[in-house]
């Protein structure tokens, strides 16, 4: 009979850590496959919440009825069932040092790595700035391991302990996605140690094929003009949004029904020539007390490379604004040529603030929002040029031709 049930997933690092420790001590655990999604039906059930109060994985339920949540507690409990285990060190100092590395891997390393690879894997929303920051923070945390493992074969003492099994398990997905060949060349100690640990019999028995990324995986924006679908449920999550939670109301719903119906404007725009018919209709019907106008420009133009990639960036931004479709209209374009291009655009937003409409997706941070005045001639020209998408822009004295773009309607 199994010692207990472990709720988790075989490819989830935190679950894996416990499974390997149990294997190392010949302790039989029954894995009950449980989503890494605290909002999933089973995870939200009263029954599971008794074992894991916030619905996360892993969680443990002993054959004797004893239950535990929190990966470190479960790992230590399971490992300590073998009175003769060497995985918990020899001395009190060893034991405390093991706890130190369990905590460091769980609280300092994994969340930062997750914030790096999860958006790249499409499991969480992508924002370049946030992902770059997460990568920097993750590498800083890993530098601590590199420095320690340059001077030590294992994390604690002269032989493998739970600290090694645990930390290596939590790194499995990172090695498969972002800790690529370059990272491995630059971090020989962590790499040597990781290889040693994942090649232990107990590790191989549970996780036979660890993957090593050749190159750090790249973010692929959603396909051009594809109607955004509801996000697919993620297989495993370090921190995951509540996919099954009831949809919150959009904050702009509170403003009530405007007299200028956005769909009517969208129809006018789609069915008529923008310059000669749609825009004259727009200015005649625009209600400055119901809507505001915004110039929305990309902040990191100097990082843009090929114009089609910049256009995909706009497509991704628009796809992730889906929740605000009822409150937004606009267009953004790529101007310039490969390796010398910018992304500029303009939107009409329900209400007088840009935040409620744009902050429904993660990309808003990548753009600047400048309010335009419908009674100002120059501002009206900006709107017309951005929406008609038929003239170049001049920025800092340099004229860039229109290359491509998207209309959000
Ligand atoms: N503090 C918990 C964190 C556990 C955790 O974040 N688990 C993730 C999977 S690795 C999870 O279940 N995420 C689902 C969610 O946040 O909805 C621990 O250390 O065990």
TrEMBL record:
Residues 223-250 are annotated as: Disordered. Residues 91-222 form the GST C-terminal domain. It holds the Pfam family GST_C. GO terms for cellular component: cytoplasm; nucleus. The keyword Calcium does not apply. Residues 237-250 have a biased composition (Basic and acidic residues). Belongs to the GST superfamily. This is Elongation factor 1-gamma. It comes from Penicillium arizonense.
